[in-house]
Amino acid sequence: EIQPTMARRCLLLSLLSLLSLLSLHAASAMVVGMRAQATHSLVMQHARYGFALHSLRMDEAAATQPGATSEEETTESPSKAVATESLPPASFQLLVEQAAAATDAAMKDGTKLMEVEFPPVPLSKLEDSSISAYDLLRSNLLLAVEFCKKLVLSVPGEGDVAIVLPDIAERERATELLGDKEPWPKMRLWALSGGDEEPTPFGFFGSLIKGSTMVEPAPWAKVYVVLSVSCSELPSLRSLAEAAPEVPIVCFNLKLDTLRGDLGLPTFPGKDMHHSFLSRVKPVYYMRPRAYSLSLSRPPFLISYAGVLFRCYPEGFQTLLDRGRGSYRRVNVNAQRPALGEFKAELTKALKLQDDIGESAISQTGFKQSTWWEDNADCLDKSNDWRE
User: Fold this and answer.
1) What is the DSSP string of 334-353?
2) N or C: less crowded end of the chain, CB within 10 Å?
3) Pairwise CA distance, residues 171 & 180, whole Å
4) What ranges does the record give for the region Disordered, renumbered to this chain (predicted)?
């Protein structure tokens, strides 16, 4: 009776071992396919959920009317208006295509420093406490790969597209996520500090010796797409632009407005970083959603509204009011980028409140409605490209 029991146990252990080996083999076989599909998974997930920006939803309702505007569309300054057709797309896949087309058009016009800015995930996900900084980095990286795939096909000339990370550690993290330093043909990963050097235990001390602004341009790069650069790393980005002035640079979701707000603070670069460098960065694709509320002295006492400042080069800067369910009302089109205070005032006026309520609400916005870099009070900007 004992011998059959032992035999059954041995047979069971053998079966378990065989299943484990088969599982390991299947898992290793899947790794290659998973790596090849990694850059598509997040985009498909975004397309499935829709591009929700606060209450501003970019769903099929918006996709059925590309470039359409409502009968209530108004343009406050016809002399400043710029002919425009585009509206925010219905999915991240369409967004990436739109952003790549705008970037390509700007490069054909000779632009070398460009900004592409949009929320990397739906804001309903951004507000989720389970979303970490690594998740946002991963989202930006995968979207950047999709973006670069379009540039590989559209940008002429010899060379590859360089996806630039701040340092070797970030580059290695991106390599681990994508599975290779060359995640796509004619596309390579690069580091602002360190280039394609291999990581070493003393890499941190080496970077201190070299200096934070010493960068090594990629000799094979025909365009740089820069990710994850912080305010303290802006000098390195400027050094890259100076070392390779003929190679276009795309600032991909760097949140330059947030970085500008840190300039001049202790341990950060001075405000001259904007005047001499960031003022030359042209926003070729810019999507900034904002949500506001108005306090009233009569029912309904509180009005919530949302809109998006949208620009797709070579078109103008559109002030779009969210009407819900993927529908927008184009409030105004500016040839130059409006300050956020001006953008908010345009949205508030478009609500068409009663005169006394509307005037009271607008007057509560305060005297100062712009930042120091929007004012340029001392006329220190070397260029006006960041507004145009």
Assistant:
1) ESSPPPHHHHHHHHHHHT--
2) N
3) 11
4) 62-83
How far apart are alpha carbons 216 and 210 in whole angstroms? 11
- Tokens encoding 209: 């010796």
Q: Give the whole-angstrom CA distance, residue 173 versus residue 165.
A: 10
DSSP 61-75: HHHTSTT---TT---
145 contacts 187 by C-beta, under 8 angstroms: yes
The per-residue pLDDT for range 332-374, each reduced to its tens digit, is 999 999 998 899 989 988 887 765 655 555 445 555 678 999 9
From 237, 1, 275, 257, select the one nearest 117 (Cα to Cα): 257
pLDDT tens track for 192-231: 988 888 877 655 555 544 445 689 899 999 999 999 999 9
219 domain-assigned: yes
Tokens 């989202």 -> residue: 139
138 Ramachandran zone, left/alpha/beta (phi>0; psi -120 to 50):
alpha
**273, 259 Cβ separation under 8 angstroms:** no
Does 299 fall in a domain? no
Q: CA 51, CA 59: separation in Å to the nearest integer?
A: 7
Distance separating alpha carbons of residues 179 and 161, to the nearest angstrom? 17
Domain tally, the chain = 1
CB 304 within 8 A of CB 324: no
C-alpha dist (Å) from residue 117 to 45, 49, 120: 20, 20, 9
pTM equals 0.78
Give 309's strand partners. 288, 319
The answer to the question of residue 305 being in a domain is no
Parent domain of 169: 36-288+372-387
Q: Could you tell me if residue 379 is left (phi over 0), alpha (psi between -120 and 50 degrees) or otherwise beta?
A: left
Low-confidence residues in the chain, pLDDT < 70: 1-7, 17-84, 123-124, 126-127, 201-213, 354-368
CA distance linking residue 135 with residue 284, whole number of Å = 25
Half-sphere exposure of 260 (CA within 13 A, CB side): 18
pLDDT of 23 reads 60
Number of H helices, E strands in the chain: 13, 11
What is the C-alpha to C-alpha distance for residues 171 and 302, in angstroms, rounded to an integer?
A: 47
